Amino acid sequence: MSVYAKEVNEYLSAIKHGDKAKFKQLFELVSPLLLGVARYYLVDKSYCEDVVSEVFQKINLYIDSYDESKDGYNWICRITENIAYNFNNKFSKNLDNAESDAALREAALMDDAETLMDDVETRVDLFRAIDQLDAESRELINQHFFLGKSFKEIGGEIHLSKMGVKKKIDKILSKLKIFIEN
């Protein structure tokens, strides 16, 4: 278990045993990463902050069911994924079929990113690896995976074809995989 995951477990255990002051520290520690998890799973990225807010409501509500022998960060990520899926089911009805189909195709293109984010340590390593990238690569990753922009939207901003943007992002993902594997 990583140092990060141990710290999350310590906060969750303290909260479970009545130290409500640790709740704010837990929020400050994990909310930036949970925003990324929410962005990954949501069809409509505008709900990210709502999802994270609901995650902390659920943590507060279900802290007694938290198993201290398990990985707390994974527990929190599962809560985030479930809430994001609920938001998708609730609010995707507002999208027309073309938008919904486009969102599903876009999600299929993110398979490499999903592979990279299999476990807690890899997630933390991923964010560290992203910090190691040059500014242009970081911006492309941020725009596509965290802001949810399509290859076409990014291409329009940087005067590159949709396929050109996809190739650049694929190369960046390859770099990130190598960095994480080492």
Features:
single chain, 182 residues, mainly alpha, 10 helices, 77% helix
Question: Summed up, what is this model?
Answer:
77% of the residues lie in helices and 0% in strands.
Number of H- or I-type helical stretches: 10
| Structural class by sheet pairing and helices | mainly alpha
Distance between the termini: 17 Å
How helical, in percent, are the residues?
A: over 70%
Could you please describe the fold and organization of this structure?
The chain has 182 residues and is mainly α. 77% of the residues lie in helices and 0% in strands. Helix 2 packs across helix 4 (72-91). The radius of gyration is 17 Å and the shape is globular. The model has no long low-confidence stretch (mean pLDDT 80).
Please outline the helices and strands.
Layout: H1 3-16, H2 22-41, H3 48-62, H4 72-91, H5 97-109, H6 111-116, H7 120-132, H8 135-146, H9 151-158, H10 162-181
